[in-house]
Amino acid sequence: TLTEDAFGLLRYVKFHSSNFENILMWDSGPASTPDMVYNVLYKRYGETEWLAKAGCQRTKQKSCNLTMETGNFTEFYYANVSVVSSGIQITSKRSERFNSLQHTTIKPPAVTCIPQVRSIQMLIHPTFTPVLSEDGHQLTLEEIFQDLFYRLELHVNHTYLMHLEGKQREYEFLGLTPDTQFLGYITILAPMWSKESAPYVCQVKTLPDRTWT
Amino acid sequence: GVAVLPAPQNLTVLSINMKHLLMWNAVAQLRETVLYSVEYQGEYESLYMSHIWIPSSQCSPTKGLECDITDDITATVPYNFRVRAMLGSQTSAWSTLERPFNRNSTVLIPPRMEVTEHGLHLVIKLEDLGPQFEFPVVYWSQEPGAKEHVKVVKSGDSPVHLETMEPGAVYCVKAQALVKAIGRHSAFSQTQCVEMQGEALPLA
Amino acid sequence: EFRFGPCRVEGVVLSELWEAFSAMKSTVQTQDDITSVRLLKSQVLHNVSDAESCYLVHSLLKFYLNTVFKNYPSKVAKFKISKSFSTLANNFFVIVSKLHPSKDKDMLSISESAHRRFLLFCKAFKQMDTEAALVKAFGEVDILLTWMQNFYHL
Fold first, then answer.
1. CA B184 to each of CA A52, B134, C12, C61, C101: distance values in angstroms, whole numbers, following the listed order
2. pTM of the prediction?
3. ipTM at complex level
4. Do B204 and A157 touch (CB under 8 A)?
């Protein structure tokens, strides 16, 4: 059962997940002593047995990478952190129920912005995740979120914005003025899960028009 | 006998573009400030647990004679509302909305719209009506035989570039408001036309 | 809209349901200390065919409306989650009222397959203390929404 942390030894046992990299984090409490170490267990919701996470036993760290152990995004997991001092477990605390599909946040995309004279090209690079497919290849965000699309906004001198969106990875804003500064914002959206990344921002200047010189 | 505080009368709901306002008549009390408390229940509560009423998120209590119940209505089902008056320790009986209100009866009116040209860019600014709205925008050139184009603008918070146009041509635009949650849309707005600059170099 | 095989449901915004449940998830799931039992197991929800889905979602949502939500008001008030609870309950009510699973004879084997899945869920529910089962079922609404999401189209 969940042991109440009456001694202020252990706080905020919580999963932090972005792009399906699932890190369990916690904090020591005011009553902690330098000799204290931590043991991490995890299990699938609905199963009886807790499993020890190798590499996070008797650790002084306050985080533990459980990406592979919690990688099945159709499953739900719990983690448990216990505090050990002089070989004796003093207290422990359970995380909330975790599911990476629900809880992961999406990082900004990697984008290359290429200025031309009257246009700007934007090439969005695929985002690979630690999640493996059945044949062992790393899944991209596009493969996990079926409804994923990209939204591109080009801000034109604080007056209006040009807007493109779609599932492809190559875009071009046309009809621009040469030798002019633009600000591009590119975000990844997975609307079914109400997920939206922070924008990748690129500041870019169109090339001068030398046709008449 | 002790004067009983009368219950508020004439409860009505005014709903325009998914903004829902519950209104009622004042309870007259000389030189005293009467407060009002609003509660609601959805169809589920009224059928399965009719004793359960939920305090409105905005008006429990309020001094006004109206209450913005938009945030309380989060399903497309009939909702009951009730209001009572409070004065010091006195509390009136509840007065209940005569007919339950369903958000699918909201009046949808076209969005305000501003069409401008920036160099060869046709730009539209739409009224921000909130996250439940999308705006199908139809635009066309006045050239003979020109085709209509449709673009769905997701939100109204900033001016959006519709298309890069031909110099010297006149383009016309109209828009409507669409609410997927209730599967309805407004009429089209009035058409607005704008002439693209001639041969001059386009400005950013 | 939802498309559970032939059954179509419009007028429900899935993100509103997620928003409502997320507002109470921590409160509700923390009440469930029995981490070794899961009511909506993978045998109930995995590999459900489109044809089965209408029968199964109809049975599950009716159970939630008639049993889980109906017996939950005391906790709702205590945990101050009335608004979120009302959003979920009324939207589940909309879905059930718009679902009309076919009663054709040639659908019998499919409806029975869906019923067997539903009985698995009921059996796990009845094997628990009623109070604990109500708390657990309510806490598993995110598992239910995750499955329903497979049939949602923007």
1. 54, 11, 13, 26, 26
2. 0.88
3. 0.85
4. yes
